[in-house]
């Protein structure tokens, strides 16, 4: 069965510092991978996605993620964090061609210090 | 309007009430989802409808009853809920084809007294 782990429950960084949020997945085939962001009281917004091709994908708000098959990882990075990036971040594995279920990780809460 | 719209945004109900959550998508998608988001827990898939047919029912108690009258609308009917059902209920939609992402609404915050 598919599963997603995000080892860090809560991360605090200073504004302007770099950020890396970890995501590991378990999936039998080539996965479809996603990162979503959720601000308090809001729904989830897609940051970026990986389906195939270039393993380094660019997203919105200056985020990028790298797919590493050998490590079953899809870590999210940003070179310089802004105070507005404080939110909850979710990694997800999408369904195969025959399914509909997305599996989400437990989330990583990001706090940003001024 | 664009995207996925959920109403109401906030709902407080007693355990004996009957209420409904509504979701509407304007993206031309044909799959719609209900997720439950509780504090300290991962998102839990509740139901998936594809082409107005229920294709996933993730062992959800019968006090939650989904309805999908057409591909643009999805309801979650609530009856005799428990306090532990208090959560953020998220609706999402997705297009056809293998690799589409989910588009989420802003959620309905439910409090059961």
Search tags:
heterodimer, A: 114 residues, mainly beta, 0% helix, globular, B: 113 residues, seven-stranded mixed beta sheet, four-stranded antiparallel beta sheet, 11 strands
Strand content of chain A: over 45%
Task: Please report the distance between the alpha carbons of the first and last residues of chain A.
Answer: 41 Å
Radius of gyration of chain B, in Å, reads 13 Å
Total helical elements of chain A: 0
Q: What value does the Rg of chain A take, in angstroms?
A: 14 Å
Number of extended strands of chain A: 12
Give the uncertain stretches of chain B in residue-range form. none
Helix content range of chain B: under 10%
Determine the most extensive contact between two protein chains: A-B, 23 and 25 residues
Classification by helices and strands of chain B: mainly beta
- Biggest pleated-sheet summary of chain B: 7 strands, mixed
Number of helices of chain B: 0
Measure the end-to-end span of chain B. Answer: 33 Å
Overall pLDDT confidence of chain A? 93
What would you call the shape of chain B? Answer: globular
Mean pLDDT of chain B: 91
* SSE order of chain A, one letter for each helix or strand: EEEEEEEEEEEE
Largest sheet data of chain A? 6 strands, mixed
How would you describe the oligomerization state of the chains in this entry?
Answer: heterodimer
**Basic shape of chain A:** globular
